[in-house]
Write a structure and sequence with these properties.
By secondary structure, this protein is of the alpha/beta class. Helices cover 29% and strands 15% of the residues. The N and C termini lie far apart (110 Å).
């Protein structure tokens, strides 16, 4: 047989089953940091995913000289070759003046035009070797100057440098690359 609860017992059960708000000094003080950690992990994953890993290579060059530093002396027995990388191809200039198309004589025009919409690096190497062999005084010259249009991409500059450094047979052409700026 089931036992009946007294009025005092029922009152105590009713009182204990009611939710009670704790006073500020009685609170448990547990901090829920899970939402904070979720945010931090998401930010960390975003940063790691957006960081681009870049491998760089350094190329020994000489930056353009400022005009306030004085005028560079040009030797008359030097080739002083400058390669202009323009939208239409390569225009070469030496101490004697502009090099004509075909790399045969002095004259105006684009020395090595693009072929099929691409720069002709093989012709550039051939022309640079031909100019270097044109005079015995040029045999020891190792400097070449490159001047490119502002929109020229990085790979074109690097390919131009490679074409001017040596021939396919391994003969050194111009190992010291300098950059010039048009004003």
């Amino acid at each position: 047989m089931a036992e009946q609860l007294s009025a005092a017992q029922r009152s105590k059960i009713r009182r204990l089953s009611q939710p009670v708000e704790l006073a500020p000094d009685e609170e448990g003080g547990e901090l829920n940091i899970i939402p904070f950690l979720d945010i931090i992990v998401n930010i960390l994953i975003f940063v790691l995913a957006t960081v681009a890993v870049t491998f760089t290579t350094s190329i020994e060059t000489t930056p353009p000289a400022s005009r306030s530093g004085g005028v560079r002396q040009v030797e008359t027995s030097s080739l002083n070759l400058t390669v202009f990388v323009v939208n239409e191809g390569f225009s070469l200039k030496a101490t004697a003046g502009n090099i004509a198309p075909g790399c045969d004589s002095p004259g105006a025009g684009i020395t090595i035009p693009k072929t099929g919409g691409k720069y002709d690096y093989t012709s550039l190497t051939t022309c640079a070797a031909k100019l270097k062999k044109a005079n015995p005084d040029f045999a020891d010259e190792t400097q070449v100057y490159i001047n490119a249009n502002p929109g020229t991409d990085y790979q074109t500059i690097i390919s131009t440098i490679d074409a001017l450094r040596s021939t396919p047979q391994g003969d050194a052409l111009f190992t010291d690359v300098n950059f010039r700026v048009s004003l």
